[in-house]
Known about the structure:
single chain, alpha+beta, seven-stranded antiparallel sheet, 15 helices, elongated
Amino acid sequence: MTALNQYQRLEAVGLWRETPQSKPRDVIVSFGEATLILTDPRSDVPLAHWSLPAVHRINPDMQPARYSPGRMDADEELTVEDDLMISAISRVHRAIAASRPNAGKLRNSVLLAGAFMVSVLGSIWLPPALVRHAAQVAPPAQRAEIGRMVLAEIALVTGSPCKRPAAGPAAQHFAEGLLGPGRQIAVLPTELDAAINLPGPITVIGSHLIAGQQSPEVAAGYILAAEAASEDADPLLAALRYAGPRATFQLMTSGTLPRAALDGYGEKLLSAPQLPVDEEHLLDLFERAGVASEPYARALDPTGEAVLGLIEADPYRTILPAQPILDDREWVALQQICDE
């Protein structure tokens, strides 16, 4: 069945038990020619091939889904949690079973099964579920590449990120001290209402929050607020929703997002309202990073009325952090990152 080949890129992790006495082992579940293939993720060696028309779900309407290779075969068992894979197995194996020849009506059966498979493809790959699945399984390198694409789109509006070499180590120290190893900040030669987390390790921030400030706490606060917001709203998911299901499907099959898929996304991202942030969680981030929250709060509202919680619950209101996020030399270097 030609349509079934289009599912060969759909994979999910499962737990396979060869016999009731066997220890469950991790497998990669994927589609073959009218079969379900269970593969060892460490060696890529196929461990089992199950006939899709015969696949039987042991626990209908329960999660995670449990399957056997047939109603009469109780020895092997497969457990799958991925909703997209569960839906695909259910629909595809029924479609294959329905396409079997029937008393001289083979041609009509094949046509009907093909039409059904097209509808399955439309109902599984094109809805938002595909986009959500792609965001969930994207590896770090893929996230980072899409993040660079988004940054390039933003740069079309704001200008390229500032890259004065002498400020590079300070910028890296600042990012990793706030957010962890491998994280980066991109300072844009413009004013931004907020810092913005991009897919991958990059957070963008306007130069006015660095060059125009007396200490790094204000910029740090904006960066931590962006981090808190992105924990509730994955930046990659937002980018893929903008790119659309067709581009996301290409990303999953080829590993590359079409460059034109993000045309205009930078402008949209810059004009989007700032996402709400849970104040208690944000204060936890301040405490872990060793940064006072009051300077950021005063930057949001100099009167302090609208940000009283960030001021009164400042984790370093009465004590100093163990060490500053940047020393004076590093802060001066970072403030000059956009200087020619």
